[in-house]
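User: Thanks for the earlier help. One more: Cupin type-2 domain-containing protein. Can you show the sequence and predicted structure together?

Assistant: Of course, both are below.
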Amino acid sequence: MTFRTTAVTAFAAAALLTPVLLGPAAANATPSTGVSAVTLAHTDIPAGLLPFIPQGAHVEVREITIAPGGTTGWHYHDAQIYGLVRQGTLTHPGADCKPVVYRAGQIIEEPGGKANTHEGTNLGTVPVILDVLYVMPPGKPLSEDADAPACAQP
């Protein structure tokens, strides 16, 4: 199975679980502003249960809302994640500070690792709403705070 097939399968399995409300993640290096998140579903896949995830995984689906003028702050993920922009326009610069713009209906694929530090910003007038699928290594957080890259320093 491909990772994409695995992710879709995990998304479907996680979507069947009971919703749990979580608050916004705290950021230390470059704090988020105007961001809230609701966990729609989550589960843990034990090591050895699925051959395509031999180490196991924490699977979580979250609805993330970024208010107009809000930002996630600079961060990265320890594994590739997938998102769907349900509403609004997300400006998404990476470590090279070149913004990529995602509009409603578009899919975001974010590679994992510190080298893929990025931020999400809402420069529009309506909230950005994202549905994000995380398939994370056991014990890893959904995101890791990061310093803004040199190109983003004022």
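User: Great, one quick takeaway?

Assistant: The CA atoms of residues 97 and 152 lie 6 Å apart.
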